[in-house]
Write a structure and sequence with these properties.
Blueprint lengths: L1 H21 L13 H16 L2 E14 L9 E13 L16 H18 L1 E9 L2 H4 L7 E9 L2 E5 H4 L2 H4 L6 E5 H11 L4 H14 L2 H12 L3 E5 L3 E3 L2 E10 L1 H6 L1 H17 L11 H9 L2 E10 L5 E13 L9 H4 L5 E13 L14 E3 L13
Helix pairs in contact: 1-9, 3-7, 9-11
């Protein structure tokens, strides 16, 4: 149990810590060693994008997996990708109330988040046409097409899906509507209403908020910042749609972070604090946790590239590239041998996402599909006794 808890805590910190570290002075832009001029450009870009109310987009998403243990006979590598385009419009919820907050105000942030989320669902509209390409090695002979066309519309908190293009005519049936709408905003509201009043959950949230505002959390973030694991650089300018764009690249060096002695000490104290909060003896933490994580993190690389207009400060393109080559031998001693035996010797993951924006501020007409059947899945679930 303790080993599993440690692994979970490390996983949560792995991708959340860069955001948490930068959030110490959020919403100030993290500039690293950039010049004052470049930092001002990033700051102006943040304001320009916050005020943006419409744009068209083209996007691509590629995801790959590899394993020393085949996923299927003769298949040790698989790849998925999504290609698409569309447009969106609408004002995002007012986040100004969060501008003076930091991670120590977790409770207040969490209490306001549901309302802002619902507002966002209902205020933003858009449409997209996507193609999902599945691994041919896995779908062959399964009756599933390798390419799935998906047309989506978002309007008034309802997500509409084009079933006519997604489901083959011979399999659709006479009663299947051409479009189905899922009331996401209504569903989320229903979830909140049906959520039971859980005193234990409330107590855990109070404990978590206390932990976020503690010296332990402050020490962890300070140690992460001191590790200097986030690097921001400006490359050569490019031209997109006739406008010069500044190219900024952010790299997150997880090996440097987890290998930093000060961070290792601070993180171990943080994990011990959470274990104590959960009623687990902190002395039971397996030895060599940070050494194992340092070895494992050496295979993780993450880079984010932004291309920002130097005249209007709008982001023209954003790309994220991640690769993670995992050597599970590094976890020996943290995971029981019986479970290690079921794990591959090595496992790799790659992710590449790119989105290009254009037609800023242009009108976007979004219309609900005629005859669409709209459902709220939560209305089909009987309410709990405490919510009645």
């Amino acid at each position: 149990m303790v080993r599993r808890m440690v692994m979970l805590l490390v996983a949560l910190l792995l991708f959340g810590l860069p955001l948490t570290a930068q959030a110490q002075e959020w919403p100030k832009v993290y500039c690293g060693n950039l010049s004052e001029e470049d930092c001002n450009l990033l700051t102006q870009s943040q304001a320009a994008m916050a005020a943006l109310d419409s744009a068209a987009f083209e996007m691509s998403f590629n995801f790959g997996l590899s394993s020393s243990e085949p996923f299927a006979p003769g298949v040790s590598e698989v790849a998925f990708d999504v290609q698409g385009s569309g447009a969106f419009a609408g004002e995002m919820p007012d986040l100004s109330a969060f501008q003076s907050m930091d991670p120590t105000q977790l409770g207040e942030i969490m209490s306001q988040a549901p309302v802002l989320f619902i507002e966002g669902l209902r205020s933003v509209s858009g449409q997209a046409s996507l193609t999902v390409n599945l691994p041919a090695e896995l779908v062959a002979g399964e009756g599933v097409p390798a390419a799935l066309p998906i047309n989506l519309i978002m309007l008034d908190g309802v997500a509409y899906v084009d079933l006519a293009s997604l489901v083959p005519a011979e399999a659709s049936g006479a009663d299947m509507p051409a479009w189905i709408g899922i009331d996401l905003a209504g569903m989320y509201e229903s979830m909140l209403k049906q959520m039971p009043d859980d005193e234990n959950l409330a107590g855990q949230m109070e404990q978590m908020q206390a932990l976020f505002s503690s010296d332990v959390m402050t020490g962890l973030v300070d140690a992460a910042l001191a590790a200097d694991f986030v690097t921001v650089t400006r490359g050569a300018d490019e031209t997109i749609d006739g406008q010069t764009v500044a190219v900024f690249q952010t790299e997150i060096d997880y090996a440097a972070l987890f290998g930093n002695e000060g961070f290792q000490t601070a993180m171990q104290e943080y994990m011990q604090s959470i274990m104590t909060m959960q009623g687990v003896d902190a002395e039971e933490m397996p030895e060599g946790v940070m050494e194992a994580m340092t070895s494992l993190m050496a295979g993780l690389k993450l880079t984010v590239t932004e291309k920002i207009g130097t005249e209007d400060y709008l982001v023209r393109q954003t790309a994220m590239d991640m690769s993670f080559d995992m050597d599970f031998a590094a976890l020996a001693g943290m995971i029981p041998e019986s479970e290690m035996g079921e794990m591959p010797d090595s496992f790799g993951m790659t992710l590449a996402f790119e989105i290009a924006l254009s037609e800023f501020g242009q009108p976007v007409e979004v219309v609900a599909p005629e005859g669409a059947q709209v459902i709220n899945p939560m209305t089909m679930i009987p309410p709990t006794s405490s919510a009645q």
